[in-house]
Amino acid sequence: MSDILKVENVTLQFGGVKAITDISFNVKEGEICAVIGPNGAGKSSMLNVINGVYLPQVGTVTYNGVTRRTINPRDAAIAGMARTFQNIALFQGMTVLENIMTGRNLFMKSTWLEQGLNIGRAREEERSNRLAVEKVIKFLQIESIRKTPVAKLPYGLQKRVELGRALVAEPKILLLDEPMAGMNLEEKADMSCFILEINKEQGITTVMIEHDMGVVMDISDHVVVLDYGKKIGDGSPTEVMANQDVIDAYLGVSH
Amino acid sequence: MATIPGLVLSHNQNHPDSVALRYKQLGIWNSYSWKDYLEETSTLANAYKSISIGKGTVVAIYGNNVPKLIFSIAAIQTLGGIVVPVHPECTSVELKKILSESKTEFLISEDQQQVDTYLDIESDCPVKSVIYLDGRGMINYKNDKLHSYDELTAKAKSANFEKEIQALNENDTAFYLFDEHEDSIYKVTHKAIIDNSEKIISLNSLTDKDSIVSYLPLSIPTNLLFTYITSLSSGMSFNLPESNQTIEKDLQEIGPTILYAPSFVFKHIITSISYRIESASESNYNRYMSHYKMLMEIYDKEVSGTNSFFDKIKKTWIMLTTFLPAKNVFGLTKIKHAFVSDGVLSKVNFDFFHAIGVEIQHSFGQASSCGCISVQPDHSVSSENVGSVMQGSEIKVNEKSEVCYKSDCSAELLSGKSNIEDGWVNSGYVGKIDDATGNLVIRGRSEDIITLKSGKQFSPESIENLISCSPFVKSSIIVGQGQDSISVIVVIDPNSVNSWADRKNIRYTGYTELAAKQEVKDLIKSHITCVNETLESELKVKSFVVLHRTLVMTQGEVSKTMEVMRKSIETNLKDVHSAIKENKNDFIVNDIDQLSYELSINKI
């Protein structure tokens, strides 16, 4: 299968601090790629480079055959990249339905006046976008909280809503930043099932940052390991598990 | 000739554009008229005919109430097939029994959960083909027997089955119904179940203007009769919720005029009100509590006929400000008839519903009586009995106090132990017939009767009913066979006890820790002490255990209508039973999840 995403020699620096140093890796179309590493390894920075939030000093990102050093996050979304965040970034006062609807922003071409008066294109857009949102609500089994304000929901469900918002953008590649952080066992099992179904049944390539090694080893096809901004491992879950550098990074070494 | 497909055909001829079925999908209510209903069933019948479903073919419908399964029932019966409704949560042991003893050839299942249960027992049953509605999660399944519903029906065209429907015989078997208490399967004819529904319709003057929401699986015989068959016979609209999690909202949106539910649903409404109130603001909490007290005082006066004009004004005020909004939340505003099967509501809960204008009509029925043998008329409701016997049926109580009946709408046994004695069907329940009114009083299942060491016999259900009427108690199991005194295992309700604990600033991490809190034990103790005041001295509860978990349906600990299943509980929680018998204070339970829990017996 061809590579949908190629990260080549990326270096990202904040002043004197090097967050990422000369990292390269490829993500094949249709796979689940897990990016793992201890805290501060540069995993979230890597996702931010991929979807254009950060501009790397050196290196390029090739997505869908187009090579670039930077991209506007909106253009990244238009090109089919959707993401979720480590710290939930939902509109807390809005309902689940409204929050997920914001993910359809890219598909709304009507003017604010048409939308305010519900006339012309706005009517048809509202109908088709609502249908897309409802399909995702059904897929994520959150029908019963459709009209509930997000602030009232437990953490695990908010994570699910965030995934829903990313999904309605109809992405080609999904960037998930710690989708299972802070969840209990049952919620993790549900989330793993959703990610697998999104990947295997809908064919959406997934890049996922995750700390739960059990989940990573179970569901990913490819694992990239970062430590102190450098890549120390890249391969299948079994290869990475046997890599001495990875074992040292996670368990520590005696000096 | 009344047959189920025949009823669909006749509604299509008489009022083709009236709403027959509503279903919420993707957040929107979709309606099917009788014309659409016939069209859908005819198309499906054509598709099923192509896979050789025909006269006498046994087809199991395995899932929740979704239109595709509902239309499938009439479609299969149009071809002369026999439908076996199977509960979506049934265990693989039950499924194996149902499929093999009914000789089911085709299984139409809803989704992966049901397909997985079937695959566990695939080699032990005669099923030739499984048709699944939702293939989600099954992309890698490689089994020649599995077929997609969408693929099967994609090329099917509507055909005219009018001749076939008219040629159906009303005395042919329409359903095979499984009775989980008796572990038996019954053959139900079109005529028997339709006649039974017509008795309910004429007794309660139900019309095609009524509407009913069916949210329990049709495998429950009473539910099949009161919702599906009654709606087909009367022509009323049959409404299906979006999912099991959205029932409350869907009931509110539809506002049905007829409600059928086992008693646990009404108990759930009381519990839901309770936990919402526990988590409400201080002022709303106090207002609700004072209004509840006033409502019940006025209700007592109404019952004794001593209510004044001022009481009427007061009641109107508290209904408008508190209880009408509460009724609306649970979709009870338009209810004309609320039927309950499987035993009676406790008096406290019954009185509450009666006071807010929801008249609960108790009924009694089983698979062998096609779902109903007695029902209370709406002008004579009570929490003491389950009504008078329906027309065409006779009832008697044998020397062991067991209720026996004869009915012109009874079902024939297909497999299981025969319960017919001298032409009378033994219901397996003990009870009596009230001499003054002729109403049937049910005390509980005869196999559950407990005999204390002193020789005193009683039905545990009567005491459990009193203990479980608290919103903090989800279920309770009385233990006392051969002992000096009565003990009870209490399962707390997670929602209402959670809200109560939050209000009292009690810290806990999960259900098990909450159930072990001394404050929770004190709460349960005070409730049991109140219950004890109403019981005769020998039947007072002397000790209780708060269980560390809820009862699990898939382990057979509760029935599909949430009644406690004593045998399974006794097996799964044998450590608790033996600790009670040995009169221990603290003990360890080795539970079915392979973990150990420390519990204690609390004296009263």
Secondary structure blueprint with pairings:
The complex is a heterodimer of chains A (255) and B (604).
Chain A (H helix, E strand, L loop, with lengths): L2 E12 L2 E12 L3 E5 L6 H8 L7 E6 L2 E3 L4 H6 L2 E3 L12 H7 L9 H6 L3 H19 L15 H13 L5 E5 L7 H16 L4 E5 L3 H7 L2 E6 L2 E6 L1 H6 L1 H8 L4
Parallel strand pairs in A: 3-8, 3-9, 6-7, 7-8
Antiparallel strand pairs in A: 1-2, 1-4, 4-5, 9-10
Chain B lengths: L3 H11 L4 E7 L2 E6 H17 L7 E5 L4 H12 L3 E5 L5 H10 L4 E4 L2 H9 L8 E4 L13 E3 H6 L7 H5 L6 E7 L4 E6 H15 L6 E3 L7 H14 L2 E4 L6 H8 L3 E5 H16 L3 H23 L4 H21 L7 E5 L5 H9 L4 E5 L9 E2 L12 E2 L3 E5 L4 E6 L4 E4 L4 E2 L2 E10 L6 E6 L4 E2 L5 E2 L1 H8 L5 E7 L6 E7 L1 H10 L7 H6 L1 H16 L7 E6 L19 H7 L1 H8 L4 E5 L5 E5 L1 E2 L1
Parallel strand pairs in B: 1-11, 3-4, 3-5, 5-6, 6-7, 10-11, 12-13, 13-14, 26-27
Antiparallel strand pairs in B: 1-2, 8-9, 9-19, 14-15, 15-16, 17-18, 18-21, 20-21, 21-22, 23-24, 25-26, 27-30, 28-29
| Distance between the first and last residues' Cα of chain B | 62 Å
- Tally of individual domains of chain B: 3
Shape of chain A: globular
Tally of DSSP helical segments of chain B:
20
Distance between the termini of chain A: 43 Å
Uncertain runs of chain B are none
What structural category characterises the helix and strand content of chain B? alpha/beta
CATH topology of the largest domain in chain A: Rossmann fold
Strand percentage of chain A? 15-25%
Strand order in space, largest sheet of chain A: 6-7-8-3-9-10
CATH superfamily heading of the largest domain in chain B: ANL, N-terminal domain
Query: How much of the sequence of chain B is in beta strands?
Result: 15-25%
Helix content of chain B: 25-40%
